[in-house]
Write a sequence for this structure.
């Protein structure tokens, strides 16, 4: 697998949350790098959860995405998504009706990372069973070099990913690099789907996809099992088949 095989980058942050690029900058720079599909997935916790304005903010963000799409034409396709926090009890930070409106839902562990492994595993499994969730980002939650990742029951995680059809991410951001090679190799034996994404916060992160591809290559993943290599049509059919 090569970086050029990746048509889609399905996890990026903009100035709407804690990224430095606007939606339009991400779209244009990704297009220059050869991407054909980009998902805008800003953090749920920074999209107005505290003051309960997330519905309005998501609506405004959708309008901006539509406007950018119109300006730049159809050489790159924009998906409106979110990176939604998995709360301590395994529920998600956005309600289901909001998740259903999004084109793509990336869920991840960011908080209460000191829970025991069994609890962390349960949280993750509960999130995977939410039919709106498409991708679990940086599954172990590791943050380099500070947190080595949760002690998950990986076999249970991989089995559940296969059963629910949720893709597990290889997060290419240098702070994560998660799944790592060892876990990706093991996951592949369970027949799970993968997503290799940049988790862009700064402009240079868009080029970090090569780090994730390196992990995918070492783990000997088949390109067909990596949803970012799929055609737009196939990806959209898959997304629409989920979370109905
Ligand atoms: Zn994250
Ligand atoms: Zn992220």
């Amino acid at each position: 697998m090569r970086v050029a095989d990746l048509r889609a980058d399905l996890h990026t942050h903009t100035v709407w949350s804690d990224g430095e690029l606007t939606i339009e900058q991400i779209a244009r720079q990704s297009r220059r790098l050869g991407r054909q599909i980009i998902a805008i997935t800003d953090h749920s916790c920074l999209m107005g959860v505290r003051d309960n304005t997330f519905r309005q903010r998501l609506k405004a963000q959708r309008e901006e995405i539509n406007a950018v799409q119109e300006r730049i034409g159809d050489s790159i396709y924009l998906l409106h998504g979110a990176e939604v926090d998995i709360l301590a009890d395994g529920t998600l930070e956005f309600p289901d009706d909001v998740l259903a409106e999004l084109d793509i839902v990336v869920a991840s562990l960011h908080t209460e990372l000191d829970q025991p492994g069994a609890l962390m595993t349960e949280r993750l499994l509960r999130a995977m069973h939410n039919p709106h969730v498409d991708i679990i980002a940086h599954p172990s939650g590791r943050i380099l070099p500070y947190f080595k990742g949760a002690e998950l029951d990986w076999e249970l995680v991989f089995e559940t990913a296969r059963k629910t059809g949720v893709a597990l991410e290889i997060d290419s951001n240098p702070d994560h690099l998660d799944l790592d090679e060892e876990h990706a190799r093991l996951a592949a034996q369970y027949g799970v789907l993968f997503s290799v994404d940049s988790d862009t916060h700064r402009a240079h992160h868009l080029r970090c996809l090569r780090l994730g591809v390196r992990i995918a290559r070492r783990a000997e993943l088949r390109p067909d099992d990596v949803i970012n290599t799929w055609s737009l049509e196939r990806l959209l059919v898959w997304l629409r088949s989920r979370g109905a």
